[in-house]
Amino acid sequence: GEDVEQSLFLSVREGDSSVINCTYTDSSSTYLYWYKQEPGAGLQLLTYIFSNMDMKQDQRLTVLLNKKDKHLSLRIADTQTGDSAIYFCAVGGATNKLIFGTGTLLAVQP
Amino acid sequence: EAEVAQSPRYKITEKSQAVAFWCDPISGHATLYWYRQILGQGPELLVQFQDESVVDDSQLPKDRFSAERLKGVDSTLKIQPAELGDSAMYLCASSLEVTSGNEQFFGPGTRLTVL
Questions:
Q1: Quick check: helix, strand or coil at residue A79?
Q2: Residue of chain A minimizing CA distance to B4
Q3: How does pLDDT run along chain A (110 residues), one tens digit per residue?
Q4: Integer Cα distance of B30 and B51 in angstroms
Q5: B-chain residues within 8 Å CB-CB of A41?
Q6: What are B90's strand-pairing partners?
Q7: Which of A43, A98, A102 is nearest residue B45 as measured by Cβ atoms?
Q8: How many A×B Cβ pairs under 8 Å?
Q9: Nearest CA to A18 among A63, A65, A54, A53?
Q10: d(CA A86, CA B12)
Q11: For A83, phi and psi rounded to 5 degrees?
Q12: Could you tell me whether strands B75-79 and B19-24 are parallel, antiparallel, or unpaired per DSSP bridges?
């Protein structure tokens, strides 16, 4: 079945850029997503990219997609302490079913 | 702003007991999803409804789990009997339609602890 992998932890200093990486196995995925989860809360959609795009920018967020390598990344510019959370990569198919990665805990040091 | 509602927020039960979770999706959303999130992992889809019909329940442990969405609006997920390994966060989400690219909006979740 589909497998989505992420590194477990990333620590950055406030003001630096953060880059969270994700790899997936199913090349038929049509949409790829980044979700944010704060402690004890549900998931919040941050951004998404369609599979025929290479890059998408949305304010401080930049998503890069390398379809050949099945690699997705999320860059957060000027990272703030409020960005501390778990970030999930997810891939979606024809029926909108999402397969999530294991999540990356982003810790922002003041 | 419209939100997905879930109740209860927290549930503690003993193994072999029955538990039920309720979800009310955003009004007008035809598609409803139940996910299970074990601590330290990403959410895993248990069941997906389009209106009152099941679209995907391939990961639902049907010997103990059941889900229904009788009138195509709110939904109930039941576990009977609960086992220790069922301790997790149960997340409900909804989207306008079932087709790819429809944003899923998540509720706050129900955290289940089985003792």
A1: coil
A2: A42
A3: 678 999 999 999 999 999 999 999 987 878 999 999 998 788 999 999 998 999 999 999 999 999 999 999 999 999 999 999 999 999 988 788 899 999 999 999 99
A4: 5
A5: 108-109
A6: B36, B110
A7: A98
A8: 66
A9: A63
A10: 25
A11: -85, -10
A12: antiparallel
